[in-house]
Amino acid sequence: MSARVDSRRGILAEWLDQRVGWRKLMHEALDEPIPGGSRWAYVFGSGLLFIFVNQIVTGIFLSLYYVPSIDHAHTTVSFIQKQVTAGSFIRSLHSYGSSVMVVLLMLHLAQTYFYGAYKSRRELLWIVGCFLFLLVLGMSFTGYLLPWDQKAYFATAVATNIISEVPVIGGALKTLLRGGTEMSTLTLSRFFMLHVFLIPGLIFAAVRAHVYLFRKAGAAGPPLKEEQRRALPVVSFFPAQVVKDFIFGIGLIVALGTLSWARPTTIGPVANPADPTYLPRPEWYYIPVFQWLKYWHGAASLLGIVIIPAIVLLLLFTAPFLDRSPERRAARRPIPVSLFLVILGGLVFLGYRSSVEDRRDPSVHAKLLAQEKAEAEYARAPFEPEQMASKASSEASLTPQQAKGSLLFESESCSACHGPSGRGGDGLAKLKRLKDRYSADQLGELLRHPRPAMLEGGMEPSKLAAQDLESLVAYLRALKE
After folding, report:
1. 444 exposed, middle or buried (CB, 10 Å; 0-12, 13-18, 19+)?
2. Residue 328 dihedral angles phi and psi, to the nearest 5°
3. Average model confidence (pLDDT) for the chain?
4. Quick one: CA torsion of 387, 388, 394, 397, rounded to 10 degrees?
């Protein structure tokens, strides 16, 4: 009986091999020669693939409920967090997974650097890896805004304001990211597009190029003398390294799952752009950059915000071309290793310094504690759905001109002062019975030439073209209580 089953398996395997070529694929994937054999130091690359798959799977589940508009983004994330079965767990897996990816990338980058594995025909491999590092940071940055709570809104507002400090193109980059001068639904939809489509597509392409270049160059092996490295036995990637990678990957998933179950991520109150007292703080891996930017003001900002970071990135990307010696041992490369440690130590110091400054200032410390308390209280509170059905039905009844006006209401950042659909609340000015109070011409004139009190409140004169202004006026007059 056993011989018959083995015979059938052999026939099936042969049939699949003739049509798919799986034996050749497995040979290419698993028989990579590793000088000196498997090592735990080599597991970080495979660990990154495990976490990237986790981000894809959890991101797909989250996108089933998420709506990228300032009217619904916060509500849908709250719904996922508080109502959807295992929604809090899935969101925590995704949120913590982004931090784990950053940690693994830093470890992988450091291990490659200290091993000198960017040398000997591996320059392009290193450059693609550095590009992947920036893409992962970009993924974290664009995903941070999507919940549209206080923390996400103000941290992203600060970051996009910093981008405007870049000479010549800074203002254009800020406008491009935000979709206007202020944060609105257009900002959210652009960040969603970057987070879900563009950056993941670039990561897929970069990972493919990285794996191809790695297989082309071959494993670098341990950093030894040339004669010692030549004497090392060459061992196949399978099974020893596969087992180590698998154990490490499963360990990562188990640790991530345990953390997500024991301490789920939270969501704070919905973003209130009119709150001038909120103190924004970015994710932990952006804290050193946040602290660094505090030291540069006025004319010096060009040096601190643009020139010095550009030099650091240039040194990182061009390390294989600057360090041309065949020597790979860290102890024999004092200048490159010292430079790397200085930069890494500087980042750690800046992060520590930021924490110390927050604790030393009583008012700042009290405000941050109050913000954390408000976030925790909101996270514990029961889910309160917005009136989506009534709002959807009212939007569906808009004429094409009024619908265009609703888009202009967001792109011109009217909701920043008046709330979604002019509903106000949380310190925002509600738009009341505009149709009864103003004719279309009067309302258009008011938008072109706001009253002194309106100007003092932050409203700017509209510079829309006549046709666009008519659409905005039509929408404003269609708003109901």
Report:
1. buried
2. -110, -15
3. 85
4. -160
* Helix or strand holding residue 35 (H, E): strand 33-35
Containing 236, the helix (H) or strand (E) segment is: strand 234-236
The least confident of 12-16, 209-213, 372-376 is: 12-16
- The whole model's pTM is what? 0.79
| Cβ count near 174 (within 10 Å) | 19
Q: Which of 155, 154, 176, 152 shows the shortest CA–CA distance to 164?
A: 176
Q: How many angstroms separate the CA atoms of 164 and 432, rounded?
A: 35
Name residue, tokens 């040979």.
27
Buried b / exposed e over 81-97, threshold 16 CB at 10 Å, is bbebeebbbbbbbbbbb
Each residue's pLDDT tens digit, 173-222? 888 888 887 888 889 999 999 999 999 999 999 999 998 898 888 878 88
The predicted pLDDT at position 336 comes to: 92
Which residue(s) pair with 425 in the sheet?
A: 428
Half-sphere exposure of 298 (CA within 13 A, CB side): 1
